[in-house]
Specification:
Blueprint (H helix, E strand, L loop, with lengths): L15 H11 L2 H19 L5 H25 L1 H4 L9 H4 L4 H22 L2 H22 L6 H5 L5 H11 L4 H24 L1 H7 L4 H4 L2 H20 L9 H26 L6 H21 L6
Helix pairs in contact: 1-3, 2-3, 2-9, 2-15, 3-6, 3-7, 3-9, 6-7, 7-9, 9-10, 10-13, 10-15, 13-14, 14-15
Amino acid sequence: MSAQPQTLAPRRKRSFGRTVKNYVALTKPRVMELLLVVTVPAMILAANGLPDLWLVLATLVGGAMSAGSAGAFNCYIDREADRLMKRTKNRPLVTGEISDRNALVFAWVLGVLSIAWLYLTTNWLAAVLGAAAIFTYVVVYTMWLKGRSEQNIIWGGIAGCFPVLIGWAAVTGSLDWPAWVFFLIIFLWTPAHYWPLSMRYREDYAAAGVPMLGVVRGRATVGLQVILYTWATVVSSLLLIPANGIGWIYTTVALLSGGYFILQAHRLYGSAIRGQEGKPMQVFHGSITYLSVLSLAIAIDPLLPF
């Protein structure tokens, strides 16, 4: 009796909505959201009030595309390492939802569009800064430092500081000292924010061969570095107080939220020197809250009539 021919199940076609969702995931929307949170306050401070709403929207769209392009390039370059990490196992290039080629084309198109958009809707300085942000994150951090140095997040984190400069440049066409202070705050904040995450996912990074500080150093060393950068972040935040438009709300928030951020960092270090894991993710999420609240205070003060 002859065997019946097997009927191959038809390949399920992915829905348009799911495809869009996967491309959005390539842009790392959570990172993008955090970057855009600091852009609007920088623009309000630069204008010492509400800037033109169209300019705000145009800058946010351009900034989102720049950050999304950098995120997509990062997913493409890190796709092999992502396959080895539990934290990144659901990324579209790992699951095969998006092909490597399509991801690379998407990253390039989004990057070129972001620079052109910023140039046409804001000014040349904002466009140049957008290009610099992509270059720093993709080349300096992802391709050069991430797999080679435990200091990767320090210098690679500069890319996350550019949205402040882009926002300021979009309003003024220049870069004044308060913009650089805001830049410094985020630069110092980034290691204090990210190193607790490297403690939590130490095994993941080790499996992928990424020398994050949490992999190559013990908990006590990482905890101490988090304390140092947290203190530096809070101190640098006070340098913004003399800026035009900054008042008592920002000063109060900077002191109170900064004190809480420092307290969390010391608790993490205290756990580390006792040989305990502590709560690194509490510090990680707390750092996001700190920067968000600080940015909100920056946005509120220039809008007050007193």
